[in-house]
Design a protein that fits this description.
heterodimer, A: alpha+beta, Cell Cycle, Chain A, 4 helices, 51% helix, B: 271 residues, alpha/beta, Rossmann fold, globular
């Protein structure tokens, strides 16, 4: 190791601080809405299940958070064969 | 009515149990009645750190299940007569603690003691949540290291959401206790410094405990460092932190590296 390198070598603490600040800002944002997506998913599933039988896998809920606007995307597939109204099935 | 203080951290191995023992003993030495409650069911260690491991007969779970009286389970310290320990049980049943049971025991302790320190298990599961559930104040033990700071942040979130106080719309008083602080490494930029930790956690500081061989020695001997070596730098930092916990307005001095020429030459570490 030459002498210049010795002087140039900076501590790793500033990197640690920066990484933590970025990570925690992200984690705190998510924490304020504890699993909003999964709550929505459950409730939407319950509403649909009242009328049509569908598999859990056919419901996709995702949320995209933007600076000024967030979008909620709900994708429900109802396969024809199982889309029998419950009243008839029962 | 006494104050209930949870000592918590999220991460394991940062010094919760050591700090519970050291702070509790420091407060008890001023004449206050203090109970230390070990919540780490299945992995109790506060008894060992307090040097009371051979005196445990009944424990927290026995009291909750009604097979022992609270007065039978409390172990009086042999050095400080106002200091008591309520050990955790070694049962492997993690559902041994119920919220009602814990609440009852805490209320009874609160009516007798000036301070009740709850030593939380690591993690954010049931045990850790029960330890903080009835607390008025929290000491968040943090090492100046990324994973510990992240977990502390998580625990602060839980303290603000899952405690009785928080649910009643009140604020639980939170304090950060930085342990294992190495002044030399912080000065060289190898370790997060105090300002970094406080800025990230935005929680007031209770104290800074310097890394010290004497803390390990105290554990080996089964005595809180504040009792066995009260003049040691870590013990003094704990004693000051205990005073701040009691409301004394004491400035925090950031430990600095005290190295002589010979120490530098030999690469010795400051104790």
């Amino acid at each position: 190791m030459n002498l210049l390198e010795l002087f140039r070598r900076r501590g790793s603490a500033p990197v640690a601080r920066e990484r933590l600040q970025v990570l925690l800002a992200y984690e705190r944002r998510n924490r304020s809405q504890p699993d909003l997506v999964s709550i929505l998913r459950e409730e939407i599933m319950a509403v649909i299940a009242k009328h049509v039988q569908i598999d859990q896998d056919y419901l996709k809920v995702s949320m995209d958070r933007g600076q000024t606007m967030s979008t909620l995307e709900i994708d429900i597939q109802i396969p024809n064969k199982s889309a029998t109204p419950l009243a008839m099935a029962g | 009515m006494g104050k209930v203080v949870v000592v918590t951290s999220g991460k394991g191995g940062v010094g919760k149990t050591t700090s519970t023992a050291a702070l509790g003993a420091a407060v008890a030495k001023t004449g206050k009645k203090v109970a230390l409650v070990d919540f780490d069911v299945g992995l109790r260690n506060l008894d060992l750190i307090m040097g009371a491991e051979r005196r445990v007969v009944f424990d927290l779970v026995n009291v909750i299940q009604g097979s022992a009286k609270l007065s039978q389970a409390l172990i009086r310290d042999k050095r400080v007569e106002t200091l008591f320990l309520l050990p955790a049980s070694q049962t492997r049943d993690k559902d041994a603690l119920t919220e009602e049971g814990v609440g009852e025991v805490i209320e009874r302790l609160r009516s007798v003691f000036d301070y009740v320190f709850c030593d939380s298990p690591a993690g954010i599961e049931r045990g850790a949540q029960l330890a903080m559930r009835f607390a008025d104040e929290a000491v968040i033990v943090t090492n100046p290291e990324v994973s510990s700071v992240r977990d502390s942040d998580r625990i602060i979130g839980l303290l603000d959401a899952r405690t009785m106080k928080a649910e009643q719309g009140e604020q639980i008083a939170k304090h950060v206790l930085v342990t294992r602080y190495d002044a030399g490494r912080a000065a060289r930029g190898e370790m997060l410094n105090i300002d970094d930790v406080l800025e990230i956690l935005s929680t007031p500081l209770l104290g800074i405990i310097p890394e010290s061989q004497d803390v390990l020695r105290a554990s080996n001997l089964g005595s809180p460092v504040t009792l066995s070596e009260p003049l040691n730098s870590a013990a003094r930092a704990y004693i000051d932190a205990a005073k701040r916990l009691e409301g004394e307005d004491l400035p925090v001095v950031v430990p600095f590296e005290r190295k002589g020429f010979l120490d530098r030459l030999l690469g010795r570490r400051a104790a």
